[in-house]
Specification:
By secondary structure, this protein is of the alpha+beta class. 28% of the residues lie in helices and 40% in strands. The protein has a 4-stranded antiparallel sheet with strand order 2-3-1-4. Helix 1 runs antiparallel to helix 2. It starts with 7 loop residues before the first strand and ends in a 6-residue tail after the last helix.
């Protein structure tokens, strides 16, 4: 079994600064998508959930270079669903961690409806 060629279905949830402009947002998603596709992956869906209030105040790694703002109480939620190998997923994580507009990110192995259908049911 070659682990590098195993495709996994991931969900990436990003919290982006609320004042990030459209061009910067598209650039974040485009560079991430290109990284996935260049490594043989597939981007299945990109969803913009809009600007929402955070459950608690979030501190950015560095103060904003324009406003000097360090703490954020609201931000834009973006989900990206993609198939990639684990090596590509770690590259995407590194790429997003270097972007100063991304406040937080998490990558989950996404559950599809097919997973629930194929799961073994306990024997009675």
């Amino acid at each position: 079994l070659n682990l590098a060629s195993t495709m996994v279905f991931y969900e990436c949830l990003m919290l982006v600064k609320h004042h990030t402009n459209f061009k910067a947002l598209t650039n974040i998603v485009k560079t991430m998508s290109l990284k996935v596709v260049d490594n043989g992956g597939i981007v299945r869906s990109i969803q913009n959930h809009g600007i929402r209030q955070f459950p608690h105040r979030i501190q950015a790694k560095h103060p904003d270079f324009k406003t000097g703002q360090r703490y954020y109480e609201k931000g834009r939620y973006i989900s990206v669903y993609y198939d990639a190998n684990p090596n590509t997923q770690s590259q995407v994580q590194n790429l997003l961690s270097l972007n100063d507009q991304v406040l937080r990110q998490t990558h989950l192995k996404a559950r599809s409806k097919l997973d629930f259908i194929t799961m073994q049911r306990p024997e009675k």
